[in-house]
């Protein structure tokens, strides 16, 4: 292996990781809710998930490729860990098809269709089709599919480049001797794992072993531990794919690791235990291509049958490897919208309201992390924020669809009104979640450009941040309990926030003119203020609707209600406004006065 092979190996790895990234992004855009529902139906049964994984791996001749796709689906929030386990098990079975083809074709190409479906042929086709869709078509949907195809094509192109960069090892006498003469089971296991890590394909390394078996030097005793090690080594691909992904995707990769490692250890224990107890007269006999293929298939089928009753244990092991922070697991639970309850509209509406409450709490949790992460840029926190945002986006689609189905039932006037209001609340909370993410995204911009805020700007932002947290808490509490009194407190706080942000904009523009603050810093600061103001506006919209729900006026006008509040026609508005101005706006003025004196 030359320095140029090493360069190609690194380049292939780069393509692999980039393909993984853009494929996941495309899948996330395309998901909408349809892909998720299809996958949920297919993988609802573990057996069906196993068959799906086996079919995909058999078609693309790569269990590694299948597990990478699964990691990408989990990372995009399209598939859950529990669904992924069966697909991963099936992928290990499907990859044995290639070794069976190789035994029949005597290392031939397996025919035209086998070649066409192999990653080396399929990758450029997918990449080209994806490029055409992405570059030449204007439809966002088709461009998203183009991004997916390009991602898969680049992913497999990267895998192929990695395999080709180390292909010269097949002709190395030392490499061949390593396969042929290893009799120590531990060394054989390690050798099989390391070689598979090197070539990034258990299919390729098994094929190499099959080729070497034609020399008559490979025995059962040396082949078995190598084959088991190859199944351990193939997990490296999913581990690489999980770099920089969400915690759920990392757990998915670890399921693959635990499944193959534990299965190999158990199989080795059984085989060597039986050998010690009764002996195997054929142990030193040479092994052929067919026997290697059969043992490879036997191991993966037996391991799948062994673990099928213990899928929850595999998931638990993965969760222990990447544990949740306190309260994190509950925060990431997605409520189930049971269509069986549609026959009881009032119950279904309450179920939908609970789901909207999950949207609201996820959006609020994201906002609470948004301002602190501007200064820390903590990767783990950012990953958790993205997972919560995926929940908000998924619930926007699923709750809206569910409420439309509820509206098709026979509803009384109150139920129809509740459905209509919930549809509005879904939109409001989804937009609040988006504005929170906009603030979070400034963290990446500040980190990349090495931008920091002055102590004065931090203090100002902290005061507005406190007001935004309170208005979101008030709004959420009012939504949960339908409390009109709490909802009425939102508008005077929103008015105070508007005054604060207007003042801060003026001050910041003055700092820009005086050269105290940099242009890029100033633009980011003003963008953050705009997003905070939008969050406050949407809280005001929600609160006005809650007041309207409790109002006896069937023609309640939220805009007129807000105008009346501002004109002092609603009791206690001015008193509440003074309270919030004293709490939030006054400290802002005091801080500015302190800076001027200093």
Tell me about the biggest sheet? none
How are helices and strands ordered from N to C?
A: HHHHHHHHHHHHHHHHHHHHHHHHHHH
Number of distinct beta strands:
0
Instruction: Write down the Rg.
Output: 30 Å
Structural class: mainly alpha
H/I helix tally: 27
Given as residue ranges, the uncertain stretches (5+ residues, pLDDT < 50) are 32-36
Strand content: under 5%
**Mean pLDDT score:** 79
| Count of domain modules | 3
N-end to C-end Cα span: 67 Å
Observed structural traits:
598 residues; mainly alpha; Methane Monooxygenase Hydroxylase, Chain G, domain 1; 27 helices
Report what the structure shows.
- The chain is 81% helix and 0% strand.
- The chain is an all-alpha fold and 598 residues long.
- It folds into 3 domains: 7-319, no CATH class; 339-450, Phosphate transport system protein phou homolog 2, domain 2 (Methane Monooxygenase Hydroxylase, Chain G, domain 1), CATH 1.20.58; 453-598, Phosphate transport system protein phou homolog 2, domain 2 (Methane Monooxygenase Hydroxylase, Chain G, domain 1), CATH 1.20.58.
- It is elongated.
- The model is unreliable at 32-36 (pLDDT under 50).
């Amino acid at each position: 292996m030359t320095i140029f092979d090493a360069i190609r190996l690194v380049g292939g790895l780069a393509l692999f990781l980039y393909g993984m990234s853009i494929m996941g992004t495309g899948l996330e855009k395309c998901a909408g809710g349809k892909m998720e529902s299809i996958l949920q139906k297919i993988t609802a049964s573990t057996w069906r998930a196993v068959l799906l994984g086996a079919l995909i791996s058999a078609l693309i001749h790569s269990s590694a490729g299948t597990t990478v796709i699964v990691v990408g689906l989990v990372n995009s929030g399209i598939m859950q860990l529990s669904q992924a386990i069966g697909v991963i098990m099936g992928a290990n079975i499907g990859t044995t098809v290639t070794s069976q083809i190789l035994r029949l074709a005597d290392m031939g190409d397996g025919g035209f269709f086998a070649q066409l479906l192999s990653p080396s042929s399929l990758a450029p086709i997918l990449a080209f089709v994806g490029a055409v869709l992405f570059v030449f078509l204007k439809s966002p949907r088709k461009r998203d599919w183009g991004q997916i195809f390009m991602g898969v094509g680049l992913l497999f192109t990267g895998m192929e480049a990695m395999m080709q960069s180390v292909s010269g090892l097949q002709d190395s006498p030392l490499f061949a001797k390593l396969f042929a003469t290893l009799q120590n089971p531990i060394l054989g296991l390690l050798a099989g794992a390391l070689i598979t890590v090197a070539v990034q394909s258990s299919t390729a390394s098994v094929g190499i072993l099959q080729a070497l078996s034609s020399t008559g030097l490979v025995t059962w005793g040396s082949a078995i531990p190598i084959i088991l090690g190859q199944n351990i080594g193939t997990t490296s691909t999913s581990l690489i794919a999980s770099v920089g992904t969400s915690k759920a995707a990392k757990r998915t990769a670890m399921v693959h690791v635990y499944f193959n490692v534990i299965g190999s250890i158990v199989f080795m224990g059984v085989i060597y235990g039986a050998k010690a107890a009764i002996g195997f007269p054929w142990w030193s006999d040479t092994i052929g291509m067919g026997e290697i293929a059969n043992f490879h298939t036997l191991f993966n089928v037996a391991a799948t049958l062994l673990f099928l009753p213990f899928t929850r244990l595999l998931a638990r092991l993965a969760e222990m490897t990447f544990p949740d922070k306190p309260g994190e697991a509950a925060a990431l639970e997605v409520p189930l919208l049971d269509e069986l309850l549609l026959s009881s509209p009032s119950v279904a509406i309450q179920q939908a309201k609970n789901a909207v409450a999950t949207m609201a709490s996820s959006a609020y949790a994201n906002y609470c992390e948004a301002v602190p992460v501007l200064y820390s840029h903590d990767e783990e926190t950012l990953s958790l924020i993205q997972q919560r945002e995926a929940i908000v986006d998924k619930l926007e689609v699923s709750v809206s669809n569910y409420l439309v189905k509820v509206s098709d039932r026979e509803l009384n006037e109150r139920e129809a009104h509740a459905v209509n209001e919930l549809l509005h609340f879904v939109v409001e909370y989804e937009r609040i979640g988006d504005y929170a993410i906009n603030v979070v995204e400034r963290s990446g911009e500040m980190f990349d450009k090495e931008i920091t805020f002055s102590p004065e700007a931090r203090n100002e932002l902290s005061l507005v941040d406190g007001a935004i947290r309170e208005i979101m808490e008030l709004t959420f509490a009012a939504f949960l309990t339908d409390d009109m009194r709490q909802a009425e407190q939102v508008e005077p706080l929103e008015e105070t926030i508007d005054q604060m942000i207007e003042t801060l904009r003026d001050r910041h523009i003055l700092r820009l003119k005086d050269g105290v603050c940099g242009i890029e810093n100033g633009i980011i600061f003003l963008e953050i203020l705009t997003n905070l103001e939008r969050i406050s506006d949407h809280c005001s919209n929600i609160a006005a609707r809650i007041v309207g729900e409790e109002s006896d006026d069937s023609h309640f006008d939220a805009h007129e209600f807000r105008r009346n509040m501002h004109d002092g026609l609603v009791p206690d508005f001015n008193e509440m406004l003074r309270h919030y101005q004293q709490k939030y706006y006054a400290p802002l003025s005091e801080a500015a006065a302190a800076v001027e004196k200093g």
